[in-house]
Design goal:
With about 220 residues, the chain is of the alpha/beta class. About 30% of the residues lie in helices and about 15% in strands. The longest helix is centred in the middle third of the chain and has 14 residues.
């Protein structure tokens, strides 16, 4: 679909860490893209498309983003409470099976608490960043890891604010309290519907009473 637009010359399918450097080297050298997986391109009007999805097994090994190349102070979103701001990822994929979502297709992988909080500290000390939007599909999928992340943020004295995306059934009181203490001020819950039959069709596997309780509890402890 993307390549149906003549204005788009190239595309990478899936995660780019593996194929993108191969593409850049070929582009700089001779534009011979033969054998590069996950790449879409045109040659003399003909479309070539390799749909292989490549993934990085250990995402702790991915280098930190080159935030020194941008003006971090220029960025914000509608939830930003502090300056400077950036977006972050602590995991990829999602272990849940919602029928409407593509994030169940790549394997679920997550960074260690030390790796993730290390990036927070890097942003805090080097770029003056105080606000983070964590874009994981389900940040709280591994509760033990979330609690350890929060513990490290508090222990290291990182005065930060942050937001996450989560599910009703992947949090509990202990997790929410830990996140509140570590600076989380907003949770996006993927509830999708209040109709039990629709929830069943979507494979959400959550109960209406649980939705009411968790949303109320989250609000009561001061998280939006």
């Amino acid at each position: 679909e993307c390549m149906s637009h003549k204005e788009i010359d190239y595309a990478i399918c899936g995660e780019a860490e593996i194929p993108l450097p191969e593409f850049v080297r070929a582009f700089q050298k001779d534009k011979n893209f033969t054998g590069i997986k996950s790449l879409a391109y045109r040659d003399k009007g003909e479309l070539f498309l390799d749909k292989t999805r490549q993934t990085v097994d250990n995402i702790n090994t991915i280098p930190l983003y080159a935030r020194h190349l941008i003006k971090n102070e220029n960025y914000s979103n509608i939830l930003t409470r502090k300056k400077n701001f950036t977006a972050m990822l602590s995991s990829r994929g999602c272990p849940y099976l919602c029928t409407f979502c593509d994030q169940k297709n790549p394997p679920y992988r997550y960074r260690s608490p030390e790796s993730f909080v290390g990036e927070i500290r890097e942003n805090y000390e080097r770029h003056g960043i105080r606000e983070f939007d964590i874009y994981d599909s389900t940040f709280t999928a591994n509760r033990k890891r979330v609690i350890e992340i929060c513990k490290l943020i508090v222990e290291q004295g990182l005065d930060v604010s942050w937001t996450i995306r989560s599910r009703i059934d992947s949090v509990n009181e202990k997790v929410l309290q830990a996140m509140k203490e570590a600076g989380c001020h907003t949770v996006f819950y993927g509830i999708e519907s209040s109709d039990p039959e629709i929830l069943k069709l979507m494979e959400k596997r959550i109960e209406i009473d649980r939705i009411k309780y968790i949303v109320s509890y989250t609000k009561d402890i001061g998280i939006d």
